[in-house]
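hey all, quick one before standup. I had two proteins in the batch that finished overnight and I want to keep them in one place so we stop losing track of which output belongs to which input. First protein below, input sequence then C-alpha cells straight from the run.
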Amino acid sequence: MELLHRLDDPECPETPADYNAADAAASFSRLAVQVGSRFSTPCGIDRDIQDSAQYGRIEVPGEATVCGTRIVALVSKFKPLAMVAADNPGAFLGTDEAQAEGELDANDLEKVEQVLAESGYITIPEELLERSYGGPTLLRFHGSGEPSWWDRFFGSF
C-alpha cells in the first residue's frame, strides 16, 4: 500500500511526471519476449491502452501452461507496478484462489513473476488492488460501486 500511495500523484492521473513513452515501449517489448521465452511460445500483447494508466497486457496462451489456463500480466504506466492473473483480472479472487481451484500452476506463476522482477517490476496482488481507493487523485470512474486501486493504476479513465 505504501508504494501505491507514493506513486499516486493527483497532478498526473494517467502517467507519472517522468513518463517516457519510448522507454516504456522498449521495456514492455523486452518483457513480452522474455515471458514468451520462459514458456517457449509467443505471447499475445496489447500495448498502450487508451485512456488508462495501464500500459499493456501480455497473455501467455493456455496451451503453454500446465493447467491450460492463460496467464495475463499487466503493467502500469506507473512503473514498477505490475499484476498477474489467471485467465483474466477478476476471473478469480487472486492467484491463490486460481491455484486452489487448479487453474494456475505455482511454477508457471513463478516464471511470470520472475521475469517481471528481473525487468524491474513489482507484482502487486490483485487482492490488494481491489481495495477501495483512498488516494488524492480525482478519478473519472466509470464502474459501479467505489473505485479501487485497480481503477487508479490499471483501469480506464
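OK second protein, same deal, sequence then C-alpha cells:
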Amino acid sequence: MLPHVVSIIGILLVAAAISIFEVPYMWKKGLKKELWLFSILLLLGVGISSAKALAWTIPTPLDWIAVVYKPFSDFLIHIGLIK
C-alpha cells in the first residue's frame, strides 16, 4: 500500500510543479480558455496516472470500439458472411 501512496504523492507533486509554472503565465496573459483546457487535461492526466499507480484496469479506446461493433460482428457471423 505504501508504494502506491508514494507514487500518487509523486504524481501530485509533479502536477503541482507544472501548475506553479504554467498557471501564473496564463493568468497574467489573460488566456482563460487555455487555462480551463490546461486544467481539465492536467486533472485527466493525474486521474489516469493515479489509477495506473493503483494498478487499476483502464479501458483503452479499442475496448470501446469493440463493444460498439460486437453486435454487428455477431450478426455477420450469424448470417454466415464471416467466420
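Flagging for whoever picks this up: The helical segments are 2-29, 32-53, 61-79. The chain has a mean pLDDT of 93.
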